[in-house]
Structures are given as C-alpha cells and as structure tokens.
Amino acid sequence: MITCTYCGHINRPGLLFCEECGHTLLEGGIDATVPTKKLETSLGEFSARATWGSASVKKISSIVMRIRDVSEPVVLELKDRIVFGRLEPSSPRQPDVDLTPYGALEKGVSRVHAAIERSDDVLTLIDMGSANGTNLNGQRLTPNQPRVLRDGDEIRFGKLIANLYFQI
Fold first, then answer.
1. What is the pLDDT of residues 139-154, one digit of tens each?
2. Which pTM was predicted?
3. Are residues 3 and 81 in the same domain?
4. pLDDT single digits (tens) 87-101
5. Domain count, the chain
C-alpha cells in the first residue's frame, strides 16, 4: 500500500496518482505509463466565442496550429485524419501529433485526446473520449460527435489552448 504524502489516503500498489486527491505518488522520475490527471474547471473559463473564419478546406494544403505560450507554430500536413494526444511508448494507440512537449500531461491532455477528420471540403473536430474534454471556441464537445472547424478556431485539449489556421 502507498500512503499519499499530501492527503494521507492509503492507495493500492502500482498507482501513480492518489485515488483521493490526484497528487503524485511517485518520488523521482517517471518511467511508467502516466494516466491523465483529472482537472478542476470553472464554467467561466470556457465561455463560448463567435467564430467567423471559413469552413472550406478545398484549397488548403496544411494547418498551422499556434499553441498558447509557445513561440513556434506547429505546421500539420492535411490528411484524412489527424489524432492529437500524448506519446506513450507502451500504448498501442499513438497520436499523430504529440502534445507532450507543450505541457500536455500537466494540462490534462489524454494519450488519445481528439482528432481532426477531413470529409469532402470541411474539417471536423472529434473528442475521442478524453478525460478532461475538448472545447471548440469555448463550447465543450460531446465525445465522438464531430463539429465543423473554421479558420482561426480555438481548441482546448484539457487546458492546453491552440488556434488553428488554414494555409494554402
């Protein structure tokens, strides 16, 4: 049994985070599979925003993703499906875009968090059943239900915030 140093809860062996408070049970480095931390959010953080960009992707070749507090943009080649999440070498499902270098674990990004899919001339965003949800322009997505993306939209993967721009 492992006792949490933060709240005193007695946890089952092998856990990385306290079952009661979520505090880390690890001392030192992380070499094991790390589960997604459940975050507390307030409704004010995710107020809806109007979006006015084009939904058509007929002429675009790539997507530029600008992650908040990161100076360099991430350029994504447009393909039929792009999966976002955290790289976990021991997991059979791997994301196409690894958000780990941008604080994904601390910001509540799941290993397989969300996907962008191309259908005809539009892109849709789908939450893949993530632990901390995906928001599009301040509105939380229902898991596995696609929503149309527009140029300039804001996406929140847990608390990791990014804007997407279509590039010709």
1. 999 999 999 999 999 9
2. 0.69
3. no
4. 988 888 899 999 999
5. 2
Q: Is the residue at 140 inside a domain?
A: yes
Residues 91-127 have pLDDT tens digits of: 888 999 999 999 999 999 999 999 999 988 899 999 9
Whether 86 and 133 map to the same domain: the answer is yes
CA distance 121 to 117: 11
CATH number at residue 155: 2.60.200.20
Q: Is 160 within the bounds of a domain?
A: yes
In the chain the beta strands, taken as DSSP E runs, fall at 2-3, 10-11, 62-67, 74-77, 81-85, 97-98, 114-119, 122-127, 134-136, 139-140, 147-148, 154-157, 160-167
Pairing of the two strands 160-167 and 147-148:
unpaired
CA dihedral for 31, 35, 40, 41, sign (positive or negative): positive
Contact 45, 52 (CB under 8 A): no
Residue linked to tokens 């006792």 = 3
